[in-house]
Design brief:
It is built from 5 helices and 13 strands. The chain is of the alpha+beta class. The chain has one domain.
Length: about 350
């Protein structure tokens, strides 16, 4: 006789399933902020390490030449180059640095090698707009040490591709306090040192305010359009075009020694007339709203200032240490720690 009794199959009811889903959603909601905090802490640590490496690179350059590199000038055998180019050999980027030996005036992005018909080995290092680092231009080279992982504006450069940067140099240290209001002048025809240079010729021993009380580098967002005209921060900005018939300084794309797209803060005037804000007006921005938008579109990022995507500003001091600054630090204190020889008495918020 066939057993007609059957075991009843049990499963989740709809209400039970909804309760489980609700519990999981609550747990995710509780865990997500913690995960985001851990991720931000890790990224901030990476950003600090980048600043540390850049600062150590400046120190290694000082060891080699008994002085710090300039904001934009000739240094260590490299002609008319910006600060972050001069640092390349000291942050393990010598191969990239050496690519500036070659100028290719008709190279096409994507080609594997410079065009032999148009490439000139000039015999010394002079980075120009069309210097090639196959298969791209040198100016488009991505350098991880120059990019903060939490910078939301990376990858939005105008025509510089991956060559954007998340850090900048203090003009008062690298460019020189005497040059803070100096308008770039490029002589045509070129005569002698035909370009205005931003060179403070600073040494570690020429910082009267103290190497632990003077900022050397700070964060600066890679793209910053809040003042209207698109602005940014690219590590090789501040170079000559190279191929113009009238000689360096006569090309439409010349930006030497710098312009609104340069990795600098705290002073200086660009070839396009942009003046980086000075003194108490130069205080950094913390998480400026809508950095990719113009002011009319709600953008509040000012390309003339140091800026950060973190809740705090991170800076590298001349002694090579990295320090975290609260957004509550006063503009007076910030201005004081930018000057190498201001003689200020620093407030307790430092």
């Amino acid at each position: 006789m066939r057993n007609s009794s059957r075991r009843r199959a049990y499963g989740f009811t709809l209400i039970e399933l909804l309760v489980v889903i609700a519990i999981i959603a609550v747990l995710i909601g509780l865990l997500l902020p913690a995960v985001q905090k851990v991720r931000e802490a890790a990224n901030r640590t990476k950003c600090q390490n980048n600043l540390k490496q850049i600062a150590l690179g400046a120190h290694n350059a000082h060891v080699a030449y008994n002085r710090l590199p300039p904001q934009a000038a000739t240094f260590g055998g490299a002609y008319f180059a910006p600060l972050f180019f001069h640092l390349l050999p000291y942050i393990e980027q010598t191969d990239l640095y050496m690519k500036a030996y070659f100028l290719d005036y008709t190279a096409v992005v994507g080609t594997l090698t410079p065009n032999p018909a148009t490439t000139i080995n000039i015999g010394f290092i002079w980075p120009c707009w069309e210097s090639v680092s196959a298969p791209i231009f040198l100016k488009q080279s991505r350098i991880k040490v120059y990019q903060c992982p939490t910078d939301p504006t990376l990858g939005n450069a105008l025509d510089w591709g991956d060559g954007d940067c998340s850090y900048a140099g203090n003009f008062l240290v690298f460019g020189g306090e005497k040059n803070i209001n100096r308008v770039p002048i490029i002589a045509n025809p070129p005569v002698g040192n035909f370009a205005t240079v931003w060179d403070g010729k600073a040494t570690l021993g020429s910082i009267p305010d103290g190497t632990s009380n003077t900022i050397m580098f700070a964060e600066k967002l890679a793209r910053c359009d809040g003042t209207g005209v698109p602005g940014g921060n690219w590590w090789m900005r501040g170079v000559f075009m190279g191929a113009q018939s009238g000689g360096p300084g006569t090309g439409a794309d010349d930006s030497y020694p710098g312009d609104r797209l340069s990795s600098v803060f705290g002073g200086g005037i660009g070839t396009d007339g942009v003046a980086w804000l000075q003194g108490i007006n130069s205080k950094f921005q913390v998480q400026p709203a809508n950095p990719l938008n113009t002011a009319a579109q709600g953008g509040r990022c000012d390309r003339r200032l140091a800026s950060t995507s973190h809740a705090v500003m991170q800076v590298a001091l001349v002694d090579g240490s990295v320090r975290v600054l609260s957004g509550e630090i006063s503009a007076v204190t910030w201005a004081a720690v930018l000057t190498p020889s201001g003689g200020e008495n620093l407030a307790p918020d430092w």
